[in-house]
Specification:
mainly alpha; 162 residues; 6 helices
Length: 162
């Protein structure tokens, strides 16, 4: 018997188990949101808001845009993947399951409200840390710190078991 297929099966079983853990999924979604956040922050800071006067305006505007875009990204993937088992779908006339637009908007509002503390924490911490380090590194550190509060709030409120 060859040990390689057994080892490979065990590794795949471990990966399936890890992907089944909600916080791991949340972390993977958060990682994608971090990439989105950093790309939008960079593009906003270096190009989109380049015409803003003074060094003060660019970080505020680009960081606000980056957080908003990353929040929509994270909501979408958390809804579709992390908490997919908890999302209630209302059937449409065609028999295809999809949420009604009003409930989707309400859930996005609930997600944003549940995440407000983490978003505020990330914003303030990024600006504070940026005084002593590069703004991109400051933003990554702030994202990591804020992720725990975001997970707990969304697990217990936005996507709670019905």
């Amino acid at each position: 018997m060859n040990a390689a297929p057994v080892w490979r099966e065990r590794l795949l079983a471990l990966l399936r188990w890890l992907l089944g853990i909600r916080y791991i999924k949340f972390g993977m979604v958060g990682a994608s949101g971090t990439v989105v956040n950093i790309v939008v922050l960079y593009l906003g800071h270096e190009y989109l808001f380049q015409s803003l006067e003074g060094a003060q305006g660019k970080p505020y505007a680009s960081l606000a845009l980056a957080i908003a875009v990353a929040t929509v990204n994270n909501f979408t993937w958390n809804r579709l993947w992390t908490w997919a088992d908890r999302v209630a779908h209302a059937p449409l006339d065609a028999g295809i399951e999809a949420p009604p637009p009003s409930s989707l908007g309400a859930q996005l509002a609930k997600y944003a409200l549940a995440s407000w503390f983490g978003i505020g924490l990330q914003y303030v911490l990024t600006l504070w840390l940026a005084h002593s380090m590069h703004y991109m590194l400051a933003n990554v550190i702030a994202i990591v710190v804020a992720s725990v509060s975001n997970f707990l709030a969304n697990d217990r409120w936005t996507f709670r078991k019905r």
